């Protein structure tokens, strides 16, 4: 059983690795795992042994052999389909195949990723400290109630069909989504952060509240700029953590322009709505609207 000790202002915290989803591991750790496991090794277990321990079939493993980085692909697909894809389970598998050298060498890097993941989760869950108002005769509005334009602080919170994850450079396409999905017979209700969210509250708190409790789906607008956005990265990973294996079809990736960078591997297992293909453009909005209209 692997336990991490994470330093916090209130003192050390003991965290069970089995409670930390694999999504917490960043690109650096995954690349280093590949450096250890990708080479065929006659002495130590390689990536194929790890894949077998993750219950991948013989044919699946043979298919991974043709990929540039089989270790990364195995981790991505395992994370997508296994409910027990956690950091603790990965460490247990490495121990099982007698690769304790990897566990020891990468321990500090993995610990740092776990610490950062826990910090992000805490920011998303906890409201910021508030300074008491002086001489205020207006009752304070609970932060998670009055956060959107149509919210009734004393009634039912505003609900949406989909949260739109986008970066600022793609905002013109978000405008097109609004026209095609809200202002047509589809009559869908989209949550567009810059339009619908009131200013003045913690971004992480609002975002997690909207994605988890207010929106049935999340549309991820993929572009080169999206890959450099910390906010989009947080939103995507948070939504994925709510639906491992995409069982609830919560995330819908959308590509609307050609990209020079690789498609994010973390979303590779999801069906993409592609606007860049002329032969399927006529069906793009119909498919997207149908997916967002599902219960």
What key phrases describe this protein's structure?
single chain; 295 residues; alpha/beta; Death Domain, Fas; Rossmann fold; five-stranded parallel sheet; two-stranded antiparallel ribbon; 12 helices; 7 strands; globular; disordered N terminus; TIR_dom; Death_dom; TIR domain binding
Assign the CATH architecture of the largest domain: 3-Layer(aba) Sandwich
**What is the CATH topology classification name of the largest domain?**
Rossmann fold
Strand segment count: 7
Which superfamily, in CATH terms, is the homologous superfamily of the largest domain?
A: Toll/interleukin-1 receptor homology (TIR) domain
Describe the structure.
- The protein has 295 residues and is α/β, with parallel strands linked by helices.
- It folds into 2 domains: 13-125, Death Domain, Fas; 160-293, 3-Layer(aba) Sandwich (Rossmann fold), CATH 3.40.50.10140.
- It is built from 12 helices and 7 strands.
- It has helices at 27-37, 47-53, 58-64, 70-81, 87-96, 100-105, 107-125, 171-182, 193-196, 203-214, 230-242, 281-293, and strands at residues 3-6, 13-16, 160-165, 190-191, 215-222, 251-255, 273-274.
- The strands form 2 sheets. The protein has a 5-stranded parallel β-sheet.
- The two termini are 39 Å apart.
Topology diagram in text:
Blueprint: E1 3-6, E2 13-16, H1 27-37, H2 47-53, H3 58-64, H4 70-81, H5 87-96, H6 100-105, H7 107-125, E3 160-165, H8 171-182, E4 190-191, H9 193-196, H10 203-214, E5 215-222, H11 230-242, E6 251-255, E7 273-274, H12 281-293
Parallel strand pairs: 3-4, 3-5, 5-6, 6-7
Antiparallel strand pairs: 1-2
Helix pairs in contact: 1-4, 7-10, 10-11
């Amino acid at each position: 059983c692997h336990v991490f000790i994470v330093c916090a202002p209130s003192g050390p915290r003991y965290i069970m690795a089995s409670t930390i989803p694999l999504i917490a591991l960043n690109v650096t750790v995954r690349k280093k795992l590949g450096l250890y496991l990708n080479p065929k090794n006659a002495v130590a277990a390689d990536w194929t042994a790890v894949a077998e321990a993750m219950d991948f079939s013989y044919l699946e493993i043979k298919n991974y052999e043709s990929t540039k980085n089989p270790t990364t692909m195995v981790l991505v697909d395992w994370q997508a389909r296994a409910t027990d894809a956690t950091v603790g389970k990965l460490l247990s598998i490495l121990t099982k195949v007698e690769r304790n050298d990897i566990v020891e060498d990468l321990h500090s890097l993995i610990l740092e990723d776990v610490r950062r993941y826990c910090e992000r989760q805490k920011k998303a869950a906890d409201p910021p400290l508030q300074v008491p108002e002086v001489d205020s005769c207006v009752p304070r509005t609970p932060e998670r109630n009055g956060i959107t334009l149509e919210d009734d602080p004393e009634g039912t919170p505003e609900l949406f069909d989909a949260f739109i994850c986008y970066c600022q450079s793609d905002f013109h396409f978000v405008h097109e989504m609004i026209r095609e999905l809200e202002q047509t017979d589809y009559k869908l209700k989209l949550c567009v952060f810059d339009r619908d969210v009131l200013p003045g509250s913690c971004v992480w708190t609002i975002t997690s509240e909207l994605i988890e409790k207010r929106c049935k789906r999340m549309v991820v607008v993929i572009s080169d700029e999206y890959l450099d956005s910390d906010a989009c990265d947080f939103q995507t990973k948070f939504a994925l953590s709510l639906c491992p294996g995409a069982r609830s079809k919560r995330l819908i990736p959308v590509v609307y322009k050609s990209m020079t960078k690789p498609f994010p591997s973390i979303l590779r297992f999801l069906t993409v709505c592609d606007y860049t293909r002329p032969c399927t453009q006529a069906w793009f909005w119909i498919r997207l609207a149908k997916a967002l209209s599902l219960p």
